[in-house]
C-alpha cells in the first residue's frame, strides 16, 4: 500500500513541477556518507518513475501474489524482517561501495525480485508461467537480468540484484 501511495504522490509532484523533491529520497552514497542523509538507505525503494507505471503495476501485482505466499509460510514478523533486509542490505552494500565510487539507486524492482526468489526457494516445484517450475523461472529471470546489466555495465544495479537474490535465498534457507 505504501508503494502505491508514494507512486501516486510521485506522479502528482511531477505533474505540478515539484519532482525534484524526489531526489532527496533516492539513494546516493555520497549523500549518505558525507552529508549524513541516512534516510536514503530506506527511502530509495519508494521512488517510482512516473514513466514506468505499467511495470510498477506488474511489480505490485507480483509482490501481492508471491509476497502473500511467503508471508503465509514464514509468518508476518519474519516476512517484515525479510522485506527490511531486502530494503536495507543492498543500500548498505552500495554505501560501502561509495567509499570508492559514488553510487545511486531508486525504485524497488530488485527488492521485489528478492521476494519472488524467496517464494521460489520455499516452493521450487510450483508451476508458474507456461508450466515452468518456480526455481527455473527465477534462474531464467536472474540470468536475463544479469546479462542485461552486464551489457550496460550497470555494476551497481548488478550488485543490488545479486545482493537481493542472495539475501532472500539465505534468509529463507535459515528459516
Give a written overview of the molecule.
The protein is mostly helical and 175 residues long. Helix content is 69%, strand content 2%. It has helices at 2-15, 29-35, 40-43, 53-74, 76-97, 109-122, 134-151, 155-174; strands at residues 27-28, 104-105. The chain has a two-stranded antiparallel sheet with strand order 1-2. The longest helix is centred in the middle third of the chain and has 22 residues, at 53-74. It is globular.
Shape descriptor reads globular
Q: Roughly what percent helix?
A: 55-70%
Q: Return the average pLDDT rounded to an integer.
A: 91
Please provide the ordered H/E string of secondary-structure elements.
HEHHHHEHHH
Number of helices: 8
Determine Rg (CA atoms, Å). Answer: 16 Å
List segments where confidence is low: pLDDT < 50 over at least 5 consecutive residues: none
| Major β-sheet strand ordering | 1-2
Please indicate the percent range of residues in DSSP E strands (runs of 2 or more): under 5%
Task: Give the end-to-end Cα distance, rounded to a whole number of Å.
Answer: 26 Å
Number of strands: 2
Largest sheet entry: 2 strands, antiparallel
Structural class: mainly alpha
Describe this structure in a few short sentences:
It is built from eight helices and two strands. With 175 residues, it is mostly helical. The chain has a two-stranded antiparallel sheet.
List keywords for this structure.
175 residues; globular; single chain; 8 helices; mainly alpha; two-stranded antiparallel ribbon; 2% strand
